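From the thread on structure requests for the teaching lab: each student submitted one protein with a one-line request. Submission from student K.M.:

"Model Pyruvate kinase-like protein from Achaetomium macrosporum, tokens only."
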Amino acid sequence: MSVHALALSPTHEFTKQPVSRLTLLAGLGVQGDCHAGATVQHRSRLHIQPPPPNLRQVHLIPKEILDECGVEPGQLGENVTTVGVDLLALGRGTRLHFLPSGSSSSGSGSGDDGLDLTIQKPHAVVVVQGLRNPCPQIDKFRAGLKERFIVRDEERRIVGRRAGVMGTVEVGGEVSVGMRIVVESRGVFEALGCV
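Reply posted by the TA:
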């Protein structure tokens, strides 16, 4: 489980530019990214008063899903492209610890792979808040692509979304391509809804 690619954009462009490292800021998001902030920064929600808390500080998506859809990392506006993490199956409140490759672990408590997260120096931690709802901008990027990120039942009702997850930064720090991701689940599973 690792970081495959990273991206950010200081402006509200749909596609973000690839970078080799990001700085995560606690309670704010990705330094230098247009979606960073304590309150919501997505253009479609800026009109809400008072502004709601920003639960969409970091967008993560599995490389495996991008590959299925023929999309390159950063093209859908995500910040972190992962490999080997089933992000869509995680529960709300799951903590993702970003650790240097080769380290034995870090944080507080134990990761789902049994690693002791208390023995590591401080590291970036993102808390999963919910699913990204596939938006119409995906079809503006490529006609018909949005439907590839939606799961429908036999009656065409939406029963799932595959455009990644959104999270908040609990502990700031550097994240770079190749870092390991350690998953720390909450005691009680809470299914992800759209945020």
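TA comment: The CA atoms of residues 5 and 186 lie 26 Å apart. DSSP finds two helices and 13 strands in the chain.
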